[in-house]
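stage 2 :: seqdesign
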């Protein structure tokens, strides 16, 4: 059986809806906490797939979270070897930095469900499954698209996804979320950010219930197609 390593930064940001297509593709999933395990100790090239999940910290917070430096270095080695890697939110930003691009605080936060706009490259990629579907956004940082990568999706303020070849996919938004009960922890933990964008936990919960299942189905189709195309 193939091995998928999921790197988490907080317990409530796991692979959620992506678990089903990853397991259906024949992967056994192993989970590690980056801040506990220490990525410098991992054989980062060994897993058949690495999934780097989200978290509330920024890639520039290496003074506060010293383990981030080791994680960025590990992902840089993996990407240099062209080993299959998927990044979500913070994970996408780690991939961008590892590939030499800039990550910075953006002028606005994006929190809530909204559609993404697919580029021409995105329409020809597994992201085509996300067309006309509201995705969950939950971030205040943004990445530049690294050299030799294709921009796949945007929203008005930000780039939202990029790919490098078949084996590296970075997603700023959360197509894995929509049916995971841990969403309640997102609402509880980020009250200040929610208020900053003029939202409320009640409205976000209602949107999650209404729009989430469709987002998850689309995200699962995207991941299934991407996994099938890995080199």
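stage 2 :: out
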């Amino acid at each position: 059986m193939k091995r998928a390593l999921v790197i988490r930064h907080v317990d409530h940001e796991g692979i959620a809806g992506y678990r089903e297509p990853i397991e259906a593709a024949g992967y056994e999933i192993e989970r590690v906490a980056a801040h506990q395990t220490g990525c410098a100790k991992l054989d980062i090239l060994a897993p058949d797939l690495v999934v780097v999940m989200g978290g509330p910290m920024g890639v520039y917070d290496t003074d506060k979270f010293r383990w981030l430096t080791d994680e960025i270095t590990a992902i840089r080695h993996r990407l240099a070897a062209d080993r299959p890697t998927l990044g979500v939110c913070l994970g996408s930003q780690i991939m961008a930095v590892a590939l030499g691009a800039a990550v910075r605080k953006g002028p606005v936060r994006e929190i809530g469900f909204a559609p993404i706009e697919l580029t021409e490259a995105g329409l020809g990629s597994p992201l085509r499954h996300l067309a006309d579907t509201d995705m969950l956004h939950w971030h205040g940082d943004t990445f530049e698209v690294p050299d030799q990568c294709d921009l796949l999706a945007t929203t008005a303020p930000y780039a939202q996804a990029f790919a490098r070849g078949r084996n590296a996919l970075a997603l700023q938004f959360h197509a894995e979320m929509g049916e995971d009960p841990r969403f309640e922890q997102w609402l509880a933990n980020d009250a200040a950010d929610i208020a900053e964008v003029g939202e409320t936990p009640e409205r976000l919960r209602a949107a999650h219930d209404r729009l989430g299942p469709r987002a998850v189905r689309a995200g699962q189709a995207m991941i299934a197609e991407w996994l099938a195309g890995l080199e």
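stage 3 :: structure notes
- The chain has a mean pLDDT of 95.
- The longest strand covers residues 103-115.
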